[in-house]
Sequence to fold (574 residues):
Amino acid sequence: MKYKRLAQKLILAPRLILPARPDPAKSRRIAEVRLVVSCFIALAVFITIGVRIITLAVATEAASISPVPLASNTARGQIFDRHGRLLATNLPMTVLHADPSEIMDLDNAVRRLAPLIKHHDETSLTKLLRKNTRYVELDRKLTPRRHAAILQLGIPGVYFREGVLRAYPRGNVAAHILGQVNTQNHGIAGVEKSMESQLLAGKDVFLSIDVGIQAILAKEISTQINEFKAAGGAGVLLDIKSGEVLAIVSLPDFNPNHLGKISADARFNRATKGLYEMGSTFKVLNTAIALETGSVQMGERYDVAKPLHVASFTINDFHVFKRPLNISEILVYSSNIGSAKMAEAIGPTRQRLFMEKLGLLDYLPLEIPEIGRPLSPRHWKQTATMTVSYGHGISISPVHLASAVGAASGEGLLVTPTLIKRQTGDSPVKIRVFSTETTRNVRSMMRLVVSHPDGTGNLAEAPGYMVGGKTGTAEKVRDGQYDNKSNLATFVATFPVHDPRYVLTVMVDEPRGQKKSYGYATGGWVAAPAVKRIVEQAAPLLGILPVDDKLPEIRQKLRLDLQIGEEKKTLATF
Fold:
């Protein structure tokens, strides 16, 4: 029995070890299901890879085309001078950029790229390409040769895109007025910023500036800066009737095509943002206010022989006059003492009111953001009134001065100044400040400052062009105190003075006395000669022809009965 059961187990053993023979139909169905599932898995993998490739391609394309997008698809408007001469335009350019995440061999890429990139060496380029970002700009303004050379390197992750370059074809000309744009083509200074919406809309801007006259101002003021070893200077030429600024210069200046190379000193606009005590040029305004208010009469005289003591201050004159001076002599000889006494007669309230009317206590509405707000006395008392009369204790910009003197020596109207060309039919805002009789008297005295042998502005005389003006020399304030080693030399002129049309202000910052000026660095020595040369060159461009100042029709427009000098005789000639 025992052996019988064992034999039965051995017979049944193959069935326990080997599985039953599968059903062919069932096996086919299982294989088909597995094949279909595998196909779906493979398809899903390919779809995922495809989507990823498309996403990366779109992202790369977006980064390469508009990582720094322009404000709009419309080309930025151009800027022209008053005669249609181009000052700012747009040029196509190529921008080199990279996606650091796609650069596989950083050291190799840097070694090959660095020699072809202007603004980076291997160290700075390595630092730039290690940034955790998808976009870094490597270079702008690629020349076709460099573009081709970089393209031939075939470095993954390095791309090119088309861009627009804001270009200033006249370099430094009117740079402070034009301003600049940033890498996104947005205005960051000057007219580029103030007229941003118009320029972005593709509309052109026409400035009141005449680039020819602008060049004359820059050249002649630069000459004085160099001759007198000065720190800088500024100039403004203003049309009295329209308020248009025909030229405006601040030196040192800069080339707006090279944004990264502009120093802080060059960027600063001395003509509109700089605030300075304008010294004796204020005597023009003081005289006009005194006459307009009736505080003084033309024949009135003041004793100026002794220094004037006011509170803890002492007012002195550059020259001592041992006899009383009349109103004309106070302006022609530039007497601080006489001006202070005239201002005392005017009084603080009326003086301040006229300063406000003349726009000397607030910002000027010029079309650039770089505008300075005047610094005026906090407490407008007797002392402030006297010092303001000769340009101390109040700080304004050269444009402020030109505008105010335009009212005092023109038709008596304050015209809102502008940097934008007036269109036909435009009516500038005009405010009556002085009567025509007051301005006629003032112009006549200003002419004597230049034409009289004892005047302080003889070096501004431009024969035939009838220049009238006033010198100004003021010590600069440093750390709350006047520095007698640093001064501003200024001259403000009106021409032709018998038929006033233009006001010219020239200021030289921190000139040093020279041998030819006998060591002086005053407005008469430093600024006046530039005025002469500017008028002689600019007047013909403005349609002003020289005249004979002895002609009756010329002489009758000015007062010839003004008494100058100890002999108390009227001046024989202007």
